[in-house]
Request: fold
Amino acid sequence: MMKIYGFTVDDVGRCKHYHRENDIISIKFKCCNKYYPCFKCHEESENHIMQPWSQEEFDHYAILCGNCKKELTINEYLKNGKCIYCHSGFNPNCSLHYHIYFDLPKHSPTN
Reply:
C-alpha cells in the first residue's frame, strides 16, 4: 500500500485543505518521490521547493486513486476525469493547480 504523506483526514486521501467528496487523489511529487494529497500539504511538510513533472515524464505513475489505491500515469489522469480502474470521479477543480504539478504546454492566444 502506498503511503500518503501530509495532513490526511481519511483513508482515501482527503486532507485538511481539500476534503470534498471527489477529492480522492494524491500526487507523487517529483522532488521527493512522496505522495501528498495537495501542494499545501507538501509545502507544510517538506523543506524543499516543488518540482513540476515535465511533459516527457507524463508516462510516469504519479497519481494515486484514493478509492481503489491504484496508480495512474500523469497522462491517464489528465485525459480522464475519473479513475480508469474504479471509475470514481475526480475533482475537476484540481485543474486549477495543474501548473504547480505539471509542466503543461503553453497555449498562445489566437488572433
Remarks:
- The mean pLDDT is 93.
- Residues 39-45 form the longest helix (7 residues).
